[in-house]
Design brief:
Chain lengths: 217, 308
């Protein structure tokens, strides 16, 4: 069960951050997949984690606020995670699907605040692929207030994720982190960007529970 | 240049004959129109960090030739609403909302710079929106990529990420810096080094607002030049090859100004659609329609005459 939910503000927009488990030490932050929201209870694979277990609802998802008019980019969701890192200090991150992509990006952008990122299977892992998908432009007739925001579903399932772009963030993470291996790939499904990241010599390829044990230190 | 403390005039500049707003899924877009309301419709799409009133000289020339010229401010620009998120895709969608709100069927569309690139993408998804497309120096090419090594490119991307995250966390505190009309104009000059001071001062009076502290550009202070996310010029240029409407591309060959993609003829020619036309001016800068409005207007009018 969710022990408590707190509101964070990210650039004027309200984000819901849920505490799934208390504990001492560095928090484990869970990032959900596309169209999902924070889990309703602590996932079993986090049972060995000694610190608090937190779960964020991305903008336009779960109990977080819905912006007017869409315009989502995974890079924009980094600001959501950045708000958590600012409030809670360094975290280890497990991202599912879309959350895995955002976890990689924020690991590169804030390597000093991300103490390890685990990239796991989940909804929205592939995004729009390494090349732009077939064109689709649509206007929704009214402003949206419910989650998941249809604009998020539309835009975050079509963003382009080239492998070389992903590798830039791997390099940022490695160059800026105190960890020898700050990125672990646990996903079994390997779209191009995940395969490229997993093939990097400084990236580990481990099952989820083993990856968490490594970062629990 | 003439005017009071709060106004400036510029030769040929004319405010819109009508203003209005259209809705794009909750984001209000400011629309400006020149010309007779029952004349055939023609859309002008501005570029990044510009706004529709930057067409105050060019649009009246087209309107005086018998077109109803409409243009809208992109989200966060000019008098349009600010939004939480800005992206290429949301701009493209806003263009769709504006065009379908204003037009019953296909219309000629003229896009400058980023606006031209976005219309290129829009027409790939919605080809039936246009009867003709004129792209004013808005065709991206690999040539414009700075000549930097991979390490430096990554360092710049990392720095941009960090600064964007920092600005995002301070977003509610961000404000455009106030200044005098002359001060704002001189601060814009590095972006528009070939445009006269009188024009830049005129732009301040239509693109900035005055409050107790002075003049501030209306553009959302969160927006900055550049932006992030993966992007390749070829992703847009492939859309050019797919166009199936009359197409005119106009390229600037001036390479020593900061704005624009600086694409060369040989970059664009392989993607030119059948019967597409390409014009190249090595002595006019990126803001072709502002530097040489009569020349460019006449070229556009001549090109669009068959689809009037």
């Amino acid at each position: 069960m969710i022990l408590r939910t707190e509101s964070l503000t990210s650039g004027g927009l309200r984000l819901a951050l849920h505490t799934l488990a208390e504990g001492d030490g560095r928090p484990l932050l869970l990032l959900h997949g596309l169209g999902e929201h924070a889990p309703a209870e602590r996932p079993s694979w986090t049972s060995a984690w000694p610190g608090p277990v937190l779960a964020l609802d991305f903008t336009g998802h779960g109990e977080s606020e819905v912006p007017v008019g869409g315009g989502y980019m995974p890079e924009s969701l980094m600001a959501d995670v950045d708000a958590v890192l600012t409030a809670k200090g360094p975290c280890t991150i497990v991202g599912r699907g879309l959350g895995a992509w955002v976890a990689l990006l924020i690991s590169g952008a804030r390597p000093e605040l991300v103490h390890g990122a685990v990239l796991a299977d989940g909804s929205g892992l592939a995004g729009g692929g390494p090349q732009p998908p077939s064109p689709y432009v649509e206007v929704l007739p009214v402003a949206v207030t419910t989650t998941p925001d249809p604009f998020a579903l539309l835009e975050l399932s079509r963003d382009v994720r080239p492998p070389d772009y992903a590798l830039d963030f791997v390099r940022f993470a490695i160059e800026g982190s105190t960890l020898e291996y700050p990125i672990v790939v646990s996903a079994r499904i390997r779209p191009d960007w995940v395969a490229a990241v997993a093939a990097e010599p400084d990236v580990l390829d481990l099952p989820l529970t083993e990856a968490l044990l490594r970062f629990a230190d | 240049m003439e005017g009071t403390d709060d106004t400036r005039s510029f030769p040929g500049a004319r405010p819109p004959d009508r203003t209005g707003r259209v809705d794009s899924s909750g984001v209000g877009l400011a629309v400006n129109e020149w010309g007779e309301p029952d004349a055939p419709l023609l859309a002008l799409v501005h570029g990044g960090f510009d706004f529709s009133r930057t067409f105050d000289v060019f649009a009246p020339m087209l309107a005086d030739a018998g077109w109803r010229v409409v243009s809208w401010d992109a989200r966060g620009h000019g008098d349009s609403d600010r939004a939480r998120y800005y992206s290429w895709a949301s701009d493209v969608r806003d263009h769709l909302a504006a065009i379908t709100s204003l037009a019953d069927g296909p219309i000629p569309i003229v896009g400058h710079s980023k606006g031209g690139g976005q219309i290129l993408d829009l027409l790939d998804g919605r080809p039936s929106l246009a009867r003709a497309f004129v792209n004013l120096d808005g065709l991206p090419s690999q040539f414009s990529a700075p000549d930097i090594n991979d390490r430096e490119r990554r360092r710049m991307r990392r720095a941009d990420l960090t600064s964007t995250l920092d600005r995002s966390s301070r977003r509610t505190e961000l404000q455009r810096r106030p200044d005098t009309i002359e001060g704002l104009a001189s601060r814009r000059a590095p972006m528009n080094p070939r445009l006269p001071k009188e024009w830049l001062e005129y732009l301040v009076t239509v693109g900035a607002r005055r409050d107790a502290d002075g003049w501030r550009w209306k553009i959302d202070p969160f927006l900055h030049l550049g932006g992030f996310g993966p992007w390749r010029s070829s992703w847009s240029m492939e859309h050019l090859a797919a166009l199936d409407v009359p197409f005119l591309g106009v390229l600037s060959g001036v390479t020593d100004e900061p704005m624009g993609w600086k694409s060369r003829l040989e970059d664009v020619a392989p993607f030119l659609p059948a019967d597409g036309r390409l014009e190249f001016f090595d002595d006019i800068g990126h803001f072709l329609h502002i530097e040489q409005p009569r020349l460019i207007a006449d070229m556009v009018l001549e090109f669009l005459e068959p689809v009037r």
